[in-house]
């Protein structure tokens, strides 16, 4: 039995079977030029992520603009006019790796730096124990919060208060509840897993969104 499941797509698909969890997962599709076109028309902005990668590596944010498209990758920005040019630029970045597309969530931020949250769970007997709820603050000029991309760790309560000016306890409890429910679902599908790390974003109006689940969290 495998302790880790690499494919973001497989894990997301498993979680989408629960309507309660599906509600907090931003629309996610396998990468294709049609899906990209449709999702950009619908949401104005999407992130493209490698299906089996971590640490924020290879993630690109694409936003529709009046002049065409803006791409953000690491600290860099690039503008393209035509859709065909955008596709070519993306293909160069993707280097034949499998990618998924996800609707972009506008994260609440601190000093212009987006914040998101990691909830860690470890299996103890037939229960899942919460071992941490921490916030990650993106490096200035970045949209990914991963520590290995220069993000900073923060106390989750402080981060919620500073980015949204609301009482943090309710949001934290909701993230923990969603994580426990998701852990049960994933355990049924992938019996070998023993630890999980969930990445959540709070958007500018405080809504909770689940970005991904890691089966070998740092
Ligand atoms: N749909 C999204 N909208 C906005 N930001 C996102 C989205 N998905 C990911 N991110 C940002 O990118 C980071 C890395 O994405 P994630 O899905 O966790 O992949 P990885 O496995 O590389 O950590 C997230 O922590 C978040 O800061
Ligand atoms: Mg992550």
Please give a structural write-up:
With 218 residues, this protein is of the alpha+beta class. It has two domains: 8-24 and 106-214, D-amino Acid Aminotransferase, Chain A, domain 1 (2-Layer Sandwich), CATH 3.30.470.20; 28-103, no CATH class. Helices cover 31% and strands 34% of the residues. The chain has six helices and twelve strands. The protein has helices at 8-16, 19-22, 33-43, 83-94, 156-164, 168-189, and strands at residues 28-30, 45-50, 60-65, 68-73, 76-80, 99-103, 109-110, 113-124, 127-137, 152-155, 195-202, 208-214. It has a six-stranded antiparallel sheet with strand order 1-6-2-3-4-5, sandwiched between helices. Strands 7, 8, 9, 10, 11 and 12 form a six-stranded antiparallel sheet that branches. The longest helix has 22 residues, at 168-189. The radius of gyration is 17 Å and the shape is globular. The model has no long low-confidence stretch (mean pLDDT 96).
């Amino acid at each position: 039995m495998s302790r880790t499941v690499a494919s973001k797509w497989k894990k997301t698909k498993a979680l989408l079977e629960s309507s309660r969890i599906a509600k907090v997962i931003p629309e996610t599709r396998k990468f294709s030029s049609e899906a990209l076109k449709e999702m950009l028309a619908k949401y104005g902005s999407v992130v493209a992520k490698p299906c089996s990668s971590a640490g924020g590596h290879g993630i690109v944010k694409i936003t529709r603009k009046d002049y065409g498209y803006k791409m953000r990758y690491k600290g860099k920005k690039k503008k393209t006019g035509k859709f065909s040019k955008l596709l070519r630029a993306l293909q160069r970045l993707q280097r034949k790796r499998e990618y998924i597309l996800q609707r972009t969530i506008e994260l609440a931020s601190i000093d212009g730096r987006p914040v998101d949250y990691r909830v860690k769970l470890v299996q103890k007997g037939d229960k899942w124990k919460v071992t941490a709820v921490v916030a990650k603050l993106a490096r200035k000029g970045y949209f990914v919060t991963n520590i290995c991309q220069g993000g900073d760790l923060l106390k989750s309560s402080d981060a919620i208060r500073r980015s949204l000016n609301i009482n943090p306890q309710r949001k934290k409890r909701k993230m923990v509840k969603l994580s426990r429910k998701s852990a049960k679902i994933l355990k049924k599908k992938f019996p070998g897993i023993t630890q999980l790390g969930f990445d959540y974003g709070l958007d500018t109006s405080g809504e909770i969104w689940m970005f991904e689940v890691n089966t070998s969290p740092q």
